[in-house]
Amino acid sequence: MKNTTKKKQGGDTHQTADKAHPVLTTNQGIHVSDNQNSLKAGQRGPVLLEDFVLREKIFHFDHERIPERIVHARGSAAHGYFELYESLSDITKADIFQRAGEKTPLFTRISTVAGGAGSVDTPRDVRGFAVKFYTKEGNWDLVGNNIPVFFIQDAIKFPDLIHAVKMESDKGYPQAASAHDTFWDFVSLMPETSHMIMWAMSDRAIPRSLRMIEGFGIHTFRLVNAKGKSTFVKFHWKPKLGLQSTLWDEALKLQAADNDFHRRDLYEAIDRGDFPEWELGLQLFDQKTADALPYDVLDSTKLIPEEVIPVRIVGRMVLDRNPDNFFAETEQVAYCPANIVPGVDFTNDPLLQGRLFSYLDTQKSRLGTANFHQIPINAPKCPMMNLQRDGMMQTEVPKGRANYEPNSLDVAGEEAGPRECPVTGFTSFQGRPENEEQGDKLRIRPESFADHYSQARLFFNSQTENEQAHLASALVFELSKVTLEHVPPRVIANLRNISEDLAARVAKGLGIPLPAKAPSSKPVQDLETSAALSIQKNMKETLQGRCVGILITDGTDAAAIDKLKKDIKKAGGTSKIVAPRLNGIVLSDKTKIKADGQLAGTPSQLFDAVAVILSREGADMLAKEAAAIQWVMDAFGHLKAIGYTKEAMPLLDKANVVKDEGVKELGKQFITAATKRFWEREPSVRNLA
Ligand code: HDD
């Protein structure tokens, strides 16, 4: 289906005269004689309406865009597979979890939430993490985020939340940013957002790479085995490259340096065979355990710390193929939390229940037809047949007249169509204890959802000192953009329930008095902290998946570049050469090389660590070049390792680089340093809240 330029059957008639290319045709298959000029009445005459080649081309172009997703409009995706490590047949009958070593194809899309399809990759935002498994029993979509909790508890608040965070409806800005009036107004009035706000203001929301984020299914789901026994489950994706984020100043500068930083990073990694990998982890627990927890497992603003219920690793996801076509695949893919397979089931989480309605509905309008499941990226890879018929853009051609059942057409020798199967068919789990509590119809939040602060406090207290400072500074930044003066005090009044220290730091950062504490409907508990919630405690000291920028210019020592590149490669990293000129850099041995990036367009925030290899003349020259000074200064300010040759010192001095643990002469020590960030440098380069 994909190859629209394929040859017609029956010989060579679809080949151009030079035989090098297939013949260009209209959508009706008519050969096009001239794709450069429209049909005119005479040489300089008007264009003729009868030019069907022109009309078809322009008309098709006019309709190329479809409505973007109302949320998660900007995303990047890849094909891959899931490989199971061990059979889970005792826990679930889902076919995908039966046989160790078996691989299931999948398509994963990672997205920002608030920005439009053309917005940048690196705003402060939650990242969507959606996986479509093409299992033998049909498609299973695990549609999660990179944060294990959500802003709200009930789906009825979702349109309000999204309206508040998206660009303000009168002004049309800000794009892809939560730092504005309406978002914080909403947050300040909705204490249930407290926990998620801690995550969204933490470094989780400014990831270094899509390959270095976790994914979470968020809701409590169920796994059901062949005997009908149910086990609660929370799904986790753990990146093999470890967790890593950027600093806020770095993220801001990345927006200017490369709008497509994450998309490019994912694409290039897969393209060079450096396939991103995540392990699938399960938190499994029974009803008794759920009942004993001090929070409700049906409440999506709560997580279960890994220290309380460990994450059992059961398989891995490898993304090993870029999409062939962005629109056909990444744009048209339609995930839906309601797509589950036998052996997986929902719970009564009211946020999940609302989601089960929303996705199919939005997709019918976004993709314009009830038949969007026929689009190749959405179609299951197992047999699919039913009696649904017709509708816009129907591409199947069902034979016969069996579009209803029961029918007895087979008695007359006709095709009778498919029938239900009680054995393999999906059956809903029976006996949810939550259902037994049912009584009157109520618009109410359960009392067990009422503690909005204890887990927010748990998150804040689980962060390192740096991370807490980043979080406080992020709140100061965001609230500084709020023009409604009554809103920041209300936010801080809520923060006082989470941490008095945090509230005081934010008030000080904004220069306003500490407001009275907001009332809390439940006493706030001091829950045991969880190291798993910190990024810094879970970063991997590695060059794998990381890139070192090497700044050179004319006269740079050729052997030094060569050795450094080899050392980086040996450590599993990649490197890119940056120079003031792209072509014809003349090295010490008079060889000429081409750089990977020109200095002005390749700032150091694009790299995880940097090296500066210069001749003395080169260093003196670059010490007068603002872009070079900024390059080094930013690397230092963003707490990165800096490797240097002695001759490069004039540039480092000009950039005020202080020789600390992260600043090393080129060699082994630099390679080790390049695997880390130097948090201890931060107080010397930045005043944090
Ligand atoms: Fe949603 C898209 C994740 C709550 C309604 N959502 C969407 C995507 C992700 C999530 C990753 C993008 C999928 C893709 O790449 O195409 N959404 C979540 C998570 C939630 C959540 C983790 C809470 C735990 N969402 C949520 C609620 C509603 C929606 C409560 C509505 C009641 N979400 C949508 C949607 C979208 C969507 C409007 C937009 C485009 C689409 O579905 O296909 O239906």
Automatic annotation (TrEMBL):
<protein>
    <recommendedName>
        <fullName>Catalase</fullName>
        <ecNumber>1.11.1.6</ecNumber>
    </recommendedName>
</protein>
<feature type="binding site">
    <location>
        <position position="366"/>
    </location>
    <ligand>
        <name>heme</name>
    </ligand>
</feature>
<dbReference type="Pfam" id="PF18011">
    <property type="entry name" value="Catalase_C"/>
</dbReference>
<dbReference type="InterPro" id="IPR029062">
    <property type="entry name" value="Class_I_gatase-like"/>
</dbReference>
<dbReference type="InterPro" id="IPR002226">
    <property type="entry name" value="Catalase_haem_BS"/>
</dbReference>
<dbReference type="InterPro" id="IPR024712">
    <property type="entry name" value="Catalase_clade2"/>
</dbReference>
<dbReference type="InterPro" id="IPR010582">
    <property type="entry name" value="Catalase_immune_responsive"/>
</dbReference>
<feature type="region of interest" description="Disordered">
    <location>
        <begin position="1"/>
        <end position="27"/>
    </location>
</feature>
<dbReference type="InterPro" id="IPR041399">
    <property type="entry name" value="Catalase_large_C"/>
</dbReference>
<dbReference type="InterPro" id="IPR018028">
    <property type="entry name" value="Catalase"/>
</dbReference>
<keyword id="KW-0479">Metal-binding</keyword>
<feature type="active site">
    <location>
        <position position="145"/>
    </location>
</feature>
<feature type="binding site" description="axial binding residue">
    <location>
        <position position="359"/>
    </location>
    <ligand>
        <name>heme</name>
    </ligand>
</feature>
<keyword id="KW-0575">Peroxidase</keyword>
<keyword id="KW-0376">Hydrogen peroxide</keyword>
<feature type="binding site">
    <location>
        <position position="69"/>
    </location>
    <ligand>
        <name>heme</name>
    </ligand>
</feature>
<feature type="domain" description="Catalase core">
    <location>
        <begin position="25"/>
        <end position="413"/>
    </location>
</feature>
<comment type="function">
    <text>Decomposes hydrogen peroxide into water and oxygen; serves to protect cells from the toxic effects of hydrogen peroxide.</text>
</comment>
<dbReference type="Pfam" id="PF06628">
    <property type="entry name" value="Catalase-rel"/>
</dbReference>
<dbReference type="GO" id="GO:0006979">
    <property type="term" value="P:response to oxidative stress"/>
</dbReference>
<feature type="binding site">
    <location>
        <position position="355"/>
    </location>
    <ligand>
        <name>heme</name>
    </ligand>
</feature>
<dbReference type="InterPro" id="IPR024708">
    <property type="entry name" value="Catalase_AS"/>
</dbReference>
<dbReference type="GO" id="GO:0042744">
    <property type="term" value="P:hydrogen peroxide catabolic process"/>
</dbReference>
<dbReference type="GO" id="GO:0046872">
    <property type="term" value="F:metal ion binding"/>
</dbReference>
<dbReference type="InterPro" id="IPR011614">
    <property type="entry name" value="Catalase_core"/>
</dbReference>
<keyword id="KW-0349">Heme</keyword>
<feature type="compositionally biased region" description="Basic and acidic residues">
    <location>
        <begin position="9"/>
        <end position="21"/>
    </location>
</feature>
<dbReference type="GO" id="GO:0020037">
    <property type="term" value="F:heme binding"/>
</dbReference>
<feature type="binding site">
    <location>
        <position position="109"/>
    </location>
    <ligand>
        <name>heme</name>
    </ligand>
</feature>
<dbReference type="GO" id="GO:0004096">
    <property type="term" value="F:catalase activity"/>
</dbReference>
<dbReference type="GO" id="GO:0005829">
    <property type="term" value="C:cytosol"/>
</dbReference>
<feature type="active site">
    <location>
        <position position="72"/>
    </location>
</feature>
<dbReference type="InterPro" id="IPR043156">
    <property type="entry name" value="Catalase_clade2_helical"/>
</dbReference>
<dbReference type="Pfam" id="PF00199">
    <property type="entry name" value="Catalase"/>
</dbReference>
<comment type="similarity">
    <text>Belongs to the catalase family. HPII subfamily.</text>
</comment>
<keyword id="KW-0408">Iron</keyword>
<feature type="binding site">
    <location>
        <position position="158"/>
    </location>
    <ligand>
        <name>heme</name>
    </ligand>
</feature>
<keyword id="KW-0560">Oxidoreductase</keyword>
<dbReference type="InterPro" id="IPR020835">
    <property type="entry name" value="Catalase_sf"/>
</dbReference>
